[in-house]
Amino acid sequence: MHSQALYSCGRICYDGIGRINRNRPGGIEAMTKFEHAMEHTEAGMVLLQTNLDDMNPEWCAYVMDKLFDAGANDVYWVPIVMKKGRPGFMLNVLASEEKLNAMEQVIFQETTTLGLRYLRADCHRLGRKFEQVETPWGPITVKTGYYKGEMVQAAPEFKDCEAAARKHGVPLKQVYEAARRSFGNGRAGAEEEAE
Question: What is the largest CA-CA distance in the chain?
Answer without folding.
Answer: 64
